[in-house]
Automatic annotation (TrEMBL):
PANTHER family linked to this entry: INTEGRATOR COMPLEX SUBUNIT 3
Protein name: Integrator complex subunit 3 N-terminal domain-containing protein
One of the Pfam families matching this protein, by short name: Ints3_N
Domain Integrator complex subunit 3 N-terminal positions: 53-455
Region described as Disordered: 497-520
Biased composition (Basic and acidic residues): 502-512
TM region positions: none
Listed InterPro entries: INTS3 (IPR045334), INTS3_N (IPR019333)
GO cellular component: cytoplasm
Length: 520
């Protein structure tokens, strides 16, 4: 990539680009500022206070020079210290933009410089430094054991250890984000053997996480109930065994009542993946979704160990992506259909399948109608309901897994979990997510043993009469989303006909209401 300045062509020193690639506007603006202001970036520096536009351009030029010229970076940062007027907010926002938009294209030397300047911004507690660190954490790929990814993981965990005192005092929530990320990464890293560089990363991750639990337990507990789900995958690691036993014995009851903030579920989802998931579940209609799913599969899920990110995707979809009523009523692909597809993808790996199912049902176990969101449990409900007519084995498998969790997940707090699951079912019916729980309790497609277990679970709970709900569930959408052998045109026709009938019914009711109002 080149930029013309007079008769001189200046190539980018910041990113790798292909021959015919369109120029990235952020990179271009940084490079233009650097070329324009390069003479001012050398001592002696001007003592004149820049106007707002000059200040913006100087920040851009310094960002570019710091990332591209390691020999002069300390000089340029000193210049930044002298002229800064906004607490480094704009400078840091440029770094965040680079991490979000350009990180995968950065040349190796720029990545090294990016970590260096991040430490500099921590030392001055720049405005927005927490966003920068979190953005870097999201760049650590799940199931990626390449040298570049392990280097980033090692550098970040070392950064947290090196800057420990400063972070504890001034940026404690950044440490909780780091703990969530590294606990989740450790669960995957500890399942892989024989990679020397990974072994070193694991030692650093364990050191950091254990230090957090030993010295800052109150910060660890701020993560909420997800901390239990993350730790349970590490009980086989000797360094965590005592921590686990202490947590389960003394603090689980309180932790289960503490809901995890949605911001944590973004930590293991890359920026590109988040964008694509939001697009799929907010814009893509059934019938045109298949090519988008295939692209998503090839981009993010193909490769050894890549499917581990499905666990994080499921938590993200359940707890972060909550569609509007307009989207729910439209033909846009629903969350439960996407989750059904993900479950199909991991059927061959039983460990991942169990973890994905736990991610799907985790909010059920401790559900409290006063604090928890019904949208967190809605997709699992609809996946079970819409599977019954044609795929009862899916419903049976999911419901059986949920009831098994009630009995075995934490026997010390079985009453709490029983109450949570029963409350979730009650709210699902009361709020009209489904018309009636009879669709499970009286359905001949499900085994008598399973229905009896569910009935016993719900017996202590007085189920409230729900408001009217949209018509009975259909198998059409699930069939379209999780199989490749059925007659899609017919299925989609049936699904769209249902949608059109609902729309016509709403129009008739609205017209009748207007006529009644006029009569009155």
């Amino acid at each position: 990539m080149t930029m013309e300045k007079g008769n001189i062509f200046v190539a980018s020193k910041l990113i790798h680009v292909s021959l015919h690639e369109v120029e990235n506007q952020l990179e271009l603006s940084l490079r233009q500022a650097f070329v324009s202001l390069n003479p001012k970036l050398h001592p002696p520096f001007s003592l004149q206070i820049p106007n707002p536009q000059e200040y913006i351009e100087l920040n851009k030029a310094i960002v570019y020079s710091v990332l591209c010229d390691s020999g002069s970076c300390k000089t340029h940062i000193k210049y930044l210290h002298a002229l800064v007027t906004d607490g480094y907010a704009f400078f840091t926002s440029l770094l965040v933009g680079i991490v979000v938009e350009l990180y995968s294209k950065l040349v190796d030397s720029a990545k090294v410089q990016l970590l260096w300047v991040t430490k500099e911004m921590i030392s001055v507690l720049s405005v927005g430094i927490d966003d920068l660190v979190v953005s870097l954490l999201r760049r650590i790929g799940s199931g990626d054991y390449s040298d570049e990814n392990l280097w980033l993981c090692s550098e970040l965990v070392s950064l947290f250890l090196d800057e420990w005192d400063c972070l504890v005092e001034d940026l404690p929530l950044v440490l909780t984000s780091a703990l969530y990320s590294f606990l989740r990464l450790l669960a995957d890293h500890c399942r892989v053997l024989g990679i020397a560089k990974l072994d070193n990363v694991k030692r650093l991750e364990i050191r950091f996480c254990v230090k957090m639990f030993r010295e800052q337990m109150h910060l660890c507990l701020k993560i909420g109930r997800e901390i239990v789900r993350l730790l349970q995958d590490l009980v086989h690691v000797s360094e965590f065994r005592e921590i686990w036993n202490d947590l389960v014995s003394n603090q689980c009851a309180d932790i289960y009542q503490s809901r995890t903030s949605s911001r944590y579920f973004l930590l293991r989802i890359s920026h590109e993946m988040e964008t694509q998931l939001r697009f799929l579940l907010g814009n893509v209609k059934l019938g045109s979704h298949k090519r988008h799913q295939i692209w998503f599969l090839k981009k993010f899920l193909l490769g050894p160990e890549k499917e581990t990110v499905l666990i994080d995707i499921v938590r993200f979809i359940c707890c972060v992506i909550h569609p509007t009523n307009e989207i729910i009523r439209s033909e846009i692909m629903p969350r439960w259909a996407m989750l059904g597809w993900f479950l199909e993808l991991c059927r061959q790996n039983h460990h991942i399948e169990r973890s994905v199912k736990l991610a799907l049902f985790y909010d059920w176990l401790f559900f409290d109608e006063k604090t928890d969101n019904i949208m967190n449990v809605e997709p699992a409900t609809l996946l079970m309901v819409w599977s019954i007519p044609q795929y009862p084995h899916i419903t049976h498998s999911l419901l059986e897994f949920l009831l098994h969790l009630v009995e075995t997940y934490d026997t010390r707090h079985r009453d709490t979990i029983t109450k949570g699951v029963a409350t979730a079912f009650r709210e699902i019916e009361r709020k009209g997510v489904i018309r009636s729980l009879d669709i499970f309790l009286s359905n001949p497609a499900l085994s008598q043993d399973l229905k009896k277990k569910l009935s016993n679970l719900l017996a202590p709970v007085k189920l409230l009469k729900p408001p009217p709900a949209i018509g009975p569930p259909s198998e059409a959408v699930l069939r379209e989303c999780v199989t490749s052998e059925l007659d899609r045109p017919v299925i989609l026709h049936q699904y769209r006909r249902r949608k059109n009938q609902d729309k016509r019914t709403e129009a008739v009711r609205s017209k009748e209401a207007n006529l009644n109002a006029e009569d009155q």
